[in-house]
Amino acid sequence: MTTLSKSQFKPRALEYFRRVERTGQEIIITDHGRPVAKIVPYKVDPEQALRSLRGTVIEYHDPTEPVGLQDWETLQDP
């Protein structure tokens, strides 16, 4: 992880963005020695879409039975 002051970062920002993209190394930007920002590589989180669904299932009685079993004509009695 690299730490830079804002004055060091500003004139070469594009170079640092490309470095993060290329190496995956994070950069911390400081203001008067105090960390104020972190530049990290963007990563797609495949579980993000599922997090919004967590806790939304109210009841699920028989997880091994097909959904819509009553809708199958071949399973109906003649």
Pick out its properties.
19% strand, three-stranded mixed sheet, alpha+beta, 78 residues, YefM-like fold, 3 helices, 24% helix
Structural shape: rod-shaped
SSE order in H/E notation? EHHEEH
- Share in β-strands: 15-25%
Proportion of residues in helical segments: 10-25%
Measure the end-to-end span. Answer: 71 Å
- What are the low-pLDDT stretches, counting only 5+ consecutive residues below 50? none
The CATH homologous superfamily: YefM-like domain
Q: How many E strands?
A: 3
The top level CATH class name: Alpha Beta
Q: Report the CATH topology name.
A: YefM-like fold
CATH architecture title = 3-Layer(aba) Sandwich
If helices are DSSP runs of H or I spanning 4 or more residues, what is the number of helices? 3
Cα radius of gyration in angstroms: 26 Å
How is the main sheet built? Answer: 3 strands, mixed
Number of domains: 1
Based on helices, strands and strand pairing, what is the structural class? alpha+beta
Describe the structure.
The protein is α+β, with helices and mostly antiparallel strands and 78 residues long. It has one domain: YefM-like fold (3-Layer(aba) Sandwich), CATH 3.40.1620. Helix content is 24%, strand content 19%. It has 3 helices and 3 strands, in the order βααββα. It has helices spanning 6-9, 13-23, 48-51, and strands at residues 2-5, 27-31, 34-39. Strands 1-2-3 form a 3-stranded mixed beta sheet. Strand 2 and strand 3 form a beta hairpin. The longest helix has 11 residues, at 13-23. The radius of gyration is 26 Å and the shape is rod-shaped. The mean pLDDT is 86.
